[in-house]
Amino acid sequence: MILATDVHYDGDQAAVAAGVLFADWQDASAQSRLTTAISPIAPYQSGAFYQRELPCLIALINGLDKQPETIVIDGFVTLGTEQQPGLGAHLFAALEARIPVIGVAKSAYRNTPANCAVHRGQSAQPLFVTAAGVDLGTAKAHIRAMHGAYRIPTLLREVDQLARTELARQLA
Asked: Which residues make Cβ contacts (< 8 Å) with residue 164, sequence separation at least 6?
């Protein structure tokens, strides 16, 4: 199974990590959905975002019955041309390099290499794909192959909505 993830926050108080599991990159719907509420969470620190989000993703992954074959995160695996470790690289290391991690970011990070851009649908605006445990060309092909006619693949949009909806429900 492939796990697509996203995390949404209530300021510095709480977070909800969400995941959708699917079998094939072309799948239009998830086979299962899961959420995990996390509180307390680490405060946001510029340049150390992974310290806030990594524990949320680990909590979500620890709730799985079986480890996924690949994890897709909302963000970067490596940062800039220097390929400094981003959230995905820290996740890959925390998982002892056993599970490939593909990062999909909606906006470029400073000095994001041009070869990270992936165009989908009719959008002139690219997504930015980075990876650990799988080569970049394969990672980009997987993201291009994902279901949906628009820039954001269907299941990545779904996991974003799942995290938002569950956080709103928890706060109500």
From this structure: 8
Per-residue pLDDT for the chain (172 aa), expressed as one digit of tens each?
999 999 999 988 899 999 999 999 999 999 999 999 999 998 888 778 899 999 999 999 999 999 999 999 999 999 999 999 999 999 999 999 999 999 999 999 999 999 999 999 889 999 999 999 999 999 999 999 999 999 999 999 999 999 999 999 988 7
Q: Provide the residue ranges of all domains of the chain, joining segments of one domain with +.
A: 2-171
CATH number of 2-171: 3.30.2170.10
Residue with tokens 């390929």: 83
Residues 6+ apart with CB under 8 A from 41: 9, 12, 13, 14, 15, 52, 55, 56
Q: Distance between CA 113 and CA 127 in Å, rounded?
A: 12
Cβ proximity of 1 and 21 under 8 Å = yes
pTM of this structure = 0.96
Short-list 17, 2, 14, 10, CA closest to 163: 17
Contact predicate 112/128, CB 8 Å: yes
